């Protein structure tokens, strides 16, 4: 089975930066698309950003200009660089990788932006 492991979450002050990592069990070239989602308490999971293997990265309007997806093929790792963090960015962040018709999810990492 495919395994995804997120890391890098934590507590950060508003305006600060954080970089999340998503380590995969295999080559990231085996996935059609990889991306980041987040879910705040009491709310539905929402798309943060997605990067198809064949296309450009799509960012949610709420994070455009602040978040950047980086794919490191040599390390089989995808990163989410988060800058200018806001309290509304507080959520559990999940990595997702899609292979054909199957989606794989990590367990999530908590990001808390204090007020």
List keywords for this structure.
mainly beta; four-stranded antiparallel β-sheet; globular; seven-stranded mixed β-sheet; 0% helix; 115 residues; 52% strand; 11 strands
Taken in chain order, the helices and strands follow as: EEEEEEEEEEE
Name the helicity range: under 10%
The geometry reads as: globular
Q: Nearest-angstrom radius of gyration? A: 13 Å
Q: Which parts are unreliable, with pLDDT below 50 for 5 consecutive residues or more?
A: none
- What does the main sheet amount to? 7 strands, mixed
First and last CA, distance:
40 Å
Residues in β-strands, percent: over 45%
Please state the average pLDDT score: 94
What is the helix tally? Answer: 0
Would you count the extended β strands for me?
11
Question: What class would the helix/strand composition place it in?
Answer: mainly beta
Task: Give a quick rundown of the structure.
The chain has 115 residues and is an all-beta fold. 0% of the residues lie in helices and 52% in strands.
């Amino acid at each position: 089975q495919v395994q995804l492991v997120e890391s890098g979450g934590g507590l950060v002050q508003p305006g600060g930066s954080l970089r999340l990592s998503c380590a995969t069990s295999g080559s990231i070239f085996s996935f059609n698309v990889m991306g980041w989602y987040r879910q705040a308490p009491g709310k539905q999971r929402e798309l943060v950003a997605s990067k198809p293997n064949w296309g450009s990265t799509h960012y949610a309007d709420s994070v455009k200009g602040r978040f950047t997806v980086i794919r490191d093929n040599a390390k089989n790792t995808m990163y989410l660089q988060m800058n200018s963090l806001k309290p509304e960015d507080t959520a559990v962040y999940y990595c997702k990788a899609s292979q054909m018709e199957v989606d794989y999810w990590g367990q999530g990492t908590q990001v808390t932006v204090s007020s």
